[in-house]
Amino acid sequence: MPREKSFRDPLHPRTRFRHVVRKVMALHRGTAVLARRGAGAEPGVDPRRVEADVELGGIRQRCAIEIVDYSAVRCTFRRMPNREFVTLMNDPEASAREPWVKVRWINIGGMSWDVIKAVSIKHELHPLALDDVFHAHARARSKADYYPGHLFLRVLCHELGEVEEAPAFAVVLDGVSKGLPPSELSVTDGTDSAATLRDLLHKPHPALHTSFHGEPHDEKVDATDERRTHDAAVRVLSGKERVSVTVSPMFIFLCRDGTVISIRSTPNLDMSTPIANRLRQTHTGLRTSADASLLVQSLLSLLVDEAHEVIDAYKDKIMKFKNMMIVKPSIDMVLNLHVLSADLIRHRRTLAPITTVVEALRRYDKDRVAALLDLSAPGTKIVGFMSFKTITYLVRFSFVYLNYNQACGCPQADVDEHMEHVLSQLDVIAADGQNLVDYTFNMISYEMNEVMRRLTLVTIIFLPLTLLAGYFGMNFTQMWSVQGHSDWFFWAVALPIMAVVVPLFVGPDILRSVQYMKKRLLVKKVVVKSFRTG
């Protein structure tokens, strides 16, 4: 007997669509509950928890990863993509260091959750440090945090941009710092302000729409887009005279086993190339010391050197403005100076905490390590993360940097001295800009005073003549000068009046001119006499 076919009546397309929408809504509500970080949420990012994958799993980027193993006698470099690096970190045997390796430097360019999750699990990075990596604001101040297993540094890097319209403060991982879910996440570098403004103006704002249940969308998204729109508009309206500077954080982990992990948001390793080149040379102090803390000091010094280039660019810009102001002051230059002063204030706010970080590493390293230990336990030994050589390099002139800088022709000093020089130069440039603004307004006021002085002089000369001309133009019947068709009487009255009025009002100016000429003649006589006696 043939088997009957069993089948269900096909669903209507509208019914199928309704089922799909309900599934998506349920998934979205679950993701929002897990992903959105609000007040009272669990602090830190634990890579072993599912909530971290839900919240940060959407951060995907093709990273540039380099692993450098070195000692005083050997050095190896390995570059690999994301998948190979994750496989290496998950394999204990493959990721194990060889016996000759003293320091391992894991240099990561780019922000990708799979990469950072693998390296954080492998080296047991603290959840609070990872929380700073993903959720701290892009412009948050530099700092140094001590944890039982490692030292964590967050330092802002200031780089000159290649594009003139690049923003002065790049937004790294826009959306993560505000606690947005991965679907609303975007990794931006902000290289074209006009394009950014155009995209944001034509982009539909999520906060203006409602969900399937009529609930309003989170206003954080609209506030973020509105802020980005305003920033892009200001960059476009500021003109092309703005110095192109990109500010982005660098995260550095110094582990107890001699592993240094550096992470940057840009998907390249161009900035750390000088450090890698020094490690390739066997005679450099960084290579011969085989000290992980000295590698951290070298990275800090590299960031400060990048800040030096920014300061030099601002020096050139302020000199250009100064030359233009001396030739012809204008309101357009005042606008450029105000924009430059605002950028300098923000750069000083982001650069000044680096001095505090260096001071903490130099003076309070062991004290902060001791605060994490149980000193009541017998045999407890306090060992800081910074070696004696590194502390010396942080405060004194370093023989590691006894190579002359090709740009300025002077030997490069240590991190502390560099930062003091950078901050002092920022203050000098800001003061120069303010002086130029004051000079411009003073010149405009002086020119206005000169115009009013000329108008006053014309009024003084012609007002009596106008009064007399009006009187003599009355055409009185008994006035003999009118009847005789002669202007002799008019000038007989006007000239004596002018001879009295003009010297009376212009006398101080004439006196100042005479005194000025006397001083010029006196100076000329003194100069001629000095040449004759010399």
From TrEMBL:
Region described as Disordered: 208-227
GO MF annotations in UniProt: cobalt ion binding; cobalt ion transmembrane transporter activity; magnesium ion binding; magnesium ion transmembrane transporter activity
Topology relative to the membrane: Multi-pass membrane protein
Subcellular location field: Cell membrane
Basic and acidic residues: compositionally biased ranges: 212-227
One Gene Ontology term, aspect cellular component: plasma membrane
Sorted UniProt keywords: Cell membrane, Membrane, Transmembrane, Transmembrane helix, Transport
Residue ranges crossing the lipid bilayer per the database entry: 455-476, 488-511
PANTHER family in the cross-refs: CORA FAMILY METAL ION TRANSPORTER (EUROFUNG) (PTHR46494)
Family as reported in the entry's similarity comment: Belongs to the CorA metal ion transporter (MIT) (TC 1.A.35) family.
The name this protein goes by in its record: Magnesium transporter
Organism encoding this protein: Mycena belliarum
